[in-house]
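subagent[fold] <- orchestrator: predict structure for attached chain, return tokens only, no commentary.
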Amino acid sequence: MNILKRPISLKDAPHLYCPGCGHGIIHRIVAEVIDELGIREKTIAVAPVGCAVFAYDYFNFDVTEAPHGRPPAVATGIKRVLPDRFVFTYQGDGDLAAIGTAETVHAANRGENITIIFVNNANYGMTGGQMAPTTLIGQKTTTTPAGRDVKRDGFPMDVCALLSSLPGVSYLERVAVNSPKNIIQTKRAIKKAFENQINGKGFSLVEVLSQCPVDWGMTPKDAIAWVENTFMKTFPLKVYKDI
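subagent[fold] -> orchestrator:
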């Protein structure tokens, strides 16, 4: 892989993501892995509502859109009808862990042979920075201006921990894109999750902690530090399941 060249699986198009956002980095990683595995012509991605919806503007392979929270259900249908295709979803925390909780849990519990890339930036990024299921305790958002209150809003949802008890799950890992070291590990995790599907091992999910400087009200530099010093204390980076 020539790091100075654009991956074939990534279109030559300017990203519309906010300055400092991690989505562009994750897109590049996904595209590199697909090129390295030689599966571009067999790949079908599923994108939902939210920042992740822009995926079909940037990925240079088939991408279909699903209703908010429903990508695992759509991916399940595609994979069952076209089992020789490589199918993955690209979802944010508001989509996957809120309106899409049931679809995520049941696809995992059935052991569907699909892969999920779960981008966690602790808020609803596209619609104005509202509280999401993964918003941290005390974190300020547009709907929690005084900070998330456990008594009112409950606790942050740990998706990897939640899914780890399900026997249908093959692989769960949480990674981040806030440093070169973590970016390298993110690529390793995504490649492993993709290879699991190719090898018929069942359901895999990689959670990626991502910067959201604009909605966090931070500079890109401060957002990177916040991921390391605050975000990871609630959502530590580790492998939750690997069968």
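orchestrator: received. Logging for downstream: The longest strand covers residues 169-176. The mean pLDDT is 95.
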